[in-house]
Structure formats: structure tokens, C-alpha cells
Amino acid sequence: xxxxxxxxxxxxxxxxxxxxxxxxxxxxxxxxxxxxxxxxxxxxxxxxxxxxxxxxxxxxxxxxxxxxxxxxxxxxxxxxxxxxxxxxxxxxxxxxxxxxxxxxxxxxxxxxxxxxxxxxxxxxxxxxxxxxxxxxxxxxxxxxxxxxxxxxxxxxxxxxxxxxxxxxxxxxxxxxxxxxxxxxxxxxxxxxxxxxxxxxxxxxxxxxxxxxxxxxxxxxxxxxxxxxxxxxxxxxxxxxx
Amino acid sequence: xxxxxxxxxxxxxxxxxxxxxxxxxxxxxxxxxxxxxxxxxxxxxxxxxxxxxxxxxxxxxxxxxxxxxxxxxxxxxxxxxxxxxxxxxxxxxxxxxxxxxxxxxxxxxxxxxxxxxxxxxxxxxxxxxxxxxxxxxxxxxxxxxxxxxxxxxxxxxxxxxxxxxxxxxxxxxxxxxxxxxxxxxxxxxxxxxxxxxxxxxxxxxxxxxxxxxxxxxxxxxxxxxxxxxxxxxxxxxxxxxxxxxxxxxxxxx
Lengths: 241, 253
What we know:
With about 240 residues, chain A is mainly alpha-helical.
């Protein structure tokens, strides 16, 4: 299918569909919104997009980065219509039915990005991973801690670390967090990383806030940052072989 | 009492030593900066960064070193659709031996426009537009309180000044802010010139008939009473009841 963007009418219909999913009369999937000229418009560049299945946020971000690189569009990351169209296009894997067969879309920011507020912007299920991936396009693996989860459930670590733009864009911080919290063999978060206990990602975010008062974290190396971390993080450090 | 401690002897760069001029180039805000750093005794190789920020959005620019301040070619503030409410901070950090250690800083710097000699005053409660979907207005506590008005309403500046909006929204906003400061954050310091919360407490205390901020050990009811006193003084000072009555009588003659 050719990549398009929802217009105002399309956004309204998309919201109506989302609202209906938690009502007693859920609407059927509004496929037509994606192509109907009354609800969407084409993008310059005639870009093909495939309805692929993604194993993780990382895979989706990588694919979107490749596809959107061909878009002749300024500031596409802030285009609500584009991201809403993509959310609708990939809806089936972004909003998986629960055990009773019901789809619960949750917060609207997951579907239509709130580009004015970074704390909510990153919650968009596709724009969020895309922005993170693009920020680290030189080495996306360093941001794996924020991209390893399934597309429909970003997880607690993302909630703790991705809501601050200065953290998301910081190479040393993300490299450190990935090294600390991701098991390099399984590619999954280590046990306890997403909890509230000592050394968890939540604590890491708190410690970063404290460091921020006396350090300019943006110019530091991961090796410097690791040395500054309190003992509580030692259990997550990979022992040197 | 909560205070921000400066353990590292970080130097505070004076506002008069940073001159930021913001202008539009091809519809995008961009900026020039003059930094006067020679009197701070900073190492020549310390690195200089300037950050532009507003609410949760920020952009960062490398400006070389203390001995060789050099503006980057691209200073376009592309993350910001309008220059309204953009603030700047200057960060000067050690390059060695402790790379990244903050040596000097200036924060909450406002800018001036090319045809103005003085910086734009940063209001205590900046008002900005934002896409609030179906909400008309809300307080944002991201960095410091900002009153947001839904951009879809059209001329939001006129709305912010309208008697009905002012009389209904501003007292309520003030109540929310003070509740946040002394009830939620339990902040009672009136001397921290860098902290927005101190600014608001000082503003409240200078309203006619308002006493000092209660002690941090005060009963919750005493804190609420003090906030009530502030709101009453505020609504009286700005004639909020009359403003609303004027509006209402116009609508229901």
C-alpha cells in the first residue's frame, strides 16, 4: 500500500473507532480510512509500505526509518496525520485482543501522537520507537534498552527512561542502560530491571536526575558514567571476562 | 527546608554576560549569542554548550571552548514552531580531567529580538498555545508552571486576556500552583532565587493582606487557609468578581 496520512476527518473517524472499542458496540476495523480520499491524503514520494509483522519495537523502528527516509516531507516526525495513519495500518499488532477477545486501545497518545509534549509524545507506539532509533542511527543497538520490547507493550523501562528528551538523545546514558539492563544473550531485560527495587531502571532515572545537577551528562562517555553509579547497580553490571 | 546545594562550586554566569538575540530566518526561529566569559576564571579547554528549551522540548548546540567560543553554523531552532516562551541555558563543563563536570551555568535566560535593546521579560506564568484536543486550558508543570490554551480556539492571546477567562482560570491556576508547591512538593523556601517555587511563594506573600508562608510543620488546614487567603487577595486585587459580572451581564442582559 502507498503511505498516506489521515486528514482531520480521518483523525476524527479513527478516534471514533478507538472510542467504540471499549463500548458495548465496537465498530469494525475502518480499513477504508486508509485509502479514502475524504479521510486521508497521499504523501509526496509515492512510498510503499508493507504490513509486516515486527518482533520488537526495534524491528518496527528500523523498518519505519528505512521507509520514511524516502518521504519527501519536512518534519514528518511531528505529523499527527502520518503517525495516526501508520497506527491504523499496523493496528492489528499494536492493539492485540486480550483473553476475552477485546481490544483495549488505552491512552490516545499511543495512537495519535501528542507532539507538543515530549513526555507523552514518546508513548506513541510507532513514533516513540522511531524517534529513539533515529536519535541513535549511528548505532541503534545502544538504544536497545528502549526498543527491545514488543510493539504493543513498551514496558516499564521505557516509561522510566524515554519520557525525557535529554535521556533519549544521550548516547552515554542509553549505552549504560542497555549494558546494565539487557541480557546480551537473550536480548531481553534482566530480572529486576523493570521493578522498583534498588538498581532498577526507575532508580537509574532518579540517579540521573541527581547527576544532572553537577554533570553535563551529554558529553560524558558510558565508561565514565558507569564508574559514578552507586553500588546498588553492581548486580546489573556484566562482569568483565 | 529544601534548598538546591551547590556542592561543586559551580559558577553562576551572570545574565548580563549572555546576550541572546532571537530572530526568524525563512520562518524558523534562529539565534545569535554573545558570551562574556573572560572574568570567570574558567579553564581554556572547558566546553561550552547552549540549550534552548520550552516545556519538554529542547535543542542543544556546541559552542566550542572557553578560549575559542565558536557558534555552530546551524542554529535553527527547528524543534520549536514559534519562539514564544523559548528559554536558554548555558553550560560550561570540564573537558579534563573530569570530563563533563559542570563548571559554570546560567539558566532560564530569555532572549531579545533584533529591534529590542532589552530581553523579553519572562512572566511568572507564561501563557502558550498547545494542542489540547478537547480541553480548553490546563496548567503544565513540566519545568515550571505554564498555562496552556488550546491552539484550536484561534486567537488564544485574546482568550487569555478576556474577562471571563481571566476571572475563572487565573484564580484556579494560582490555587493549583500553590497547592502543588506547599501541599504536594512540601516546599517552603522563599529565598531560592533559582527556583520557580520560591518565586511563586514570594509573589503570594506580597499580595495585600497575605501573611508569610506557613511553617513546614503547619497543620494541613493551616496550609489550606493560607492558600485561601492568597486566592482571596488575588481575586480582590484584580477585580475578578467584577470582571465576571461584567461578562455575565453582557451575556444575560
